[in-house]
Amino acid sequence: MVNVTFVTEFILRGFPELHGLKMPFFTILLVMYLLTLTGNSLIIVIVCMEPMLHTPMYFFLVNFSMAEICTTTTVVPKMLVNDFSGKATFCFACCMAQGFVVFAASAVEFLTLTVMSFDHYIAIRKPLLYKTIMTNRLCLNLTWMSWVVGFVIIFSQSVVVWTFPFCGNNVVDHFFCDVGPVLKLACADTSLMELIGLIYGASIMWGSFGLSLISYTCIIATIIQIPSATGRSKAFVTCASHLIVITMFYLVLMVMYLRPSTHGNTQVNKAVSIVHTSFIPLLNPFIYTIRNKDFKAALRKNAKRRVLF
Q1: Is the pTM for the entire model greater than 0.85?
Q2: What is the mean pLDDT of the chain?
Q3: SS3 annotation, 116-162
């Protein structure tokens, strides 16, 4: 037996290259996080309070917002505390839990985006049968399946990561416990785990992206055939926000994770991770609601109700 000291905590390196820019960086991240929480929470509250919005589209949007809050809240507060206090330590179990929740919530987002694409497909291609197909029971089943499948798939990989021995170096060159920088510290051969993770990631990303692509190919073909310009415009506006989110979301995460997890430029990884955990969750509420007349009407209605009471 070799006398080995195993790691009980990690040190998150964060952004040491910022030097004197830490306070502006901290302020920007804090404002972005608060806006993200406010925007996504507002979607959840307004949809729950307004009966007019009790439709499959908004039900799936609420679940997507919940997953977004999960992702950003798991990462950003800890990063802000580290930057503000200068204490960057993170217990082993906390680090593993953080990585698990971030990736599980991201998997749920992928699956929910696919479900939303299917919902738009039915709404555009089969409008007369929409209510018959998109029943409350089907919506609930699709939603809980997205959450369960997302968490189970990531949990099966996370258990393997948790069993790796970590000894010696405990400095994670990242601002959160991303799988790549963490696996670099393992005192074991992680190549098989990286290959399995790559296969899992490719299956989830390309699978969900492929289904969304098929849905929108059919949707665009249907929109083109609509005789009136007003009808085409209305149908396109309905789907445009979702297309923007899909493009941003898949592009960022495919750049990040469709390659061996311990390879790649660290600074690029951090920048893309900031986009994933802070920038995209901030934009999504605006993208989905800024041109949505129903949501804005519901927001004004509830705002007036609050003023009256």
Answers
A1: yes
A2: 84
A3: HHHHHHHHHHCHHHHHHHCCHHHHHHHHHHHHHHHHHHHHHHHHHHH
